[in-house]
């Protein structure tokens, strides 16, 4: 078994009195892609926000979030980022009037502050992964295409040099070729030892790229196992993979 990058134990999240997650246990190893699939409203975004420490009005959380063995459950977002966690939110949250490069540099801020020589190499590695971003580095992020904006969001998360990268629906609204490109990068990152937690509606693409998967329904894990095994499970095929 690989070293645990992330271990979530008995995670409960409630919005007011309504509990959305009922005791989740999730593990991501080093160099492993773990996917969480499930229908709309199952609690996938709730789970990612709770792990990342995002403040959501009305939400209360209990349970343990261990990052490389250390409980970061009480840390604010910035401190979790500094410890090696990065989340690429579904909304992508770019600063639309700022350039691509300035958006990327913001991702480095928590880690490097203003030490330019330290982040130059990281920026170079992001441009190597996404040559398109180098070509467009001075363009306003808001004028990039949907796929390019997803690359900026992913690149910005990588600028913090995460050991755990969490992705919320990275393929949402993107053309098949761009989805392929994004998944190619995710697999390359895994090969560098980063642990990846991938939430996807596109269960087929997710299970293809992942090592291990969880099926989340109404706040509970109803099935888990090696991704290849889930992809062949009749119930998963029926509910999540369709006929095509
Ligand atoms: P989707 O795939 O549609 O994004 P999801 O699996 O990410 O769905 P969540 O967005 O985590 O699901 O929602 C889980 C449940 O919690 C849903 O019933 C949702 O209505 C509820 N919920 C989410 N955010 C809030 C909030 N801020 N306040 C109250 N209820 C919320």
UniProtKB/TrEMBL annotation:
Q: Name any one GO molecular function.
A: ATP hydrolysis activity
Domain ABC transporter stretches: 6-243
Q: Which PROSITE patterns does the protein's record reference?
A: ABC_TRANSPORTER_1, ABC_TRANSPORTER_2
One Gene Ontology term from the biological process aspect of the record = L-amino acid transport
What keywords are assigned to this protein? Amino-acid transport, ATP-binding, Cell membrane, Membrane, Nucleotide-binding, Transport
Q: Which InterPro entries match?
A: AAA+_ATPase (IPR003593), ABC_transporter-like_ATP-bd (IPR003439), ABC_transporter-like_CS (IPR017871), BCAA_Transport_ATP-bd_LivF (IPR052156), P-loop_NTPase (IPR027417)
PANTHER family for the chain: ABC TRANSPORTER ATP-BINDING PROTEIN, HIGH-AFFINITY BRANCHED-CHAIN AMINO ACID TRANSPORT ATP-BINDING PROTEIN LIVF
Q: Which family does it belong to?
A: Belongs to the ABC transporter superfamily.
* Name listed for the protein in its UniProt record: ABC transporter ATP-binding protein
